[in-house]
Write a structure and sequence with these properties.
With 148 residues, this protein is an alpha/beta fold. The chain has a single domain, classed as 3-Layer(aba) Sandwich (Rossmann fold). Helices cover 36% and strands 24% of the residues. Strand 4, helix 5 and strand 5 form a beta-alpha-beta unit. The protein is globular, with a radius of gyration of 16 Å.
Length: 148
């Protein structure tokens, strides 16, 4: 099934993001965070796609990165921002949120993604744009990030 989906995805139009576009998306995310006066205590980048966003946010905000999901820090009332490039199905963010909820510290967990697809299981708290999730739609695009 996965191989069939990968083969199918290769036929969809691709949108190649440039580094300049990446930078503009990051600025949009930072503005959204500023608007609600949010600054995490730590940033976690979901490997691999979330690492460029997390490193950039860490540098621009002066917030340290962590190498694990941060649940133990959240239990100590530290705010964690988990980053990914795209929330496609939302399963990764949703699974992380559920882990935080199980430990009674979900209020310390926020998410950021450059983009998300409409209908994702968990809409990121901070994002730049949303995309069509309907693979039959002429608007559907496969995003090719500059680090790929």
């Amino acid at each position: 099934m996965k191989e069939e989906l990968q083969r199918q995805l290769k036929t969809y139009p691709k949108q190649h993001m440039t580094w300049q576009e990446f930078d503009a998306h990051v600025n949009t995310i930072i503005k959204a965070m500023d608007k609600v006066n949010y600054r995490p205590d730590y940033i976690y980048g979901i490997p691999r796609g979330g690492l460029p966003l997390s490193v950039t946010l860490s540098n621009r905000l002066g917030v340290p990165m962590i190498l694990d999901d941060g649940i133990m820090l959240a239990k100590d009332n530290k705010h964690i921002l988990a980053c990914d490039d795209l929330s496609d199905t939302g399963e990764t963010f949703s699974n992380m949120y559920n882990q935080y909820a199980t430990k009674s510290c979900s209020s310390y967990f926020k998410t950021a993604a450059l983009m998300y697809r409409i209908g994702t299981a968990l809409i990121p708290d901070f994002y730049s744009v949303y995309l069509s999730a309907n693979m039959e739609s002429p608007d559907y695009r496969w995003i090719h990030f500059p680090w790929e």
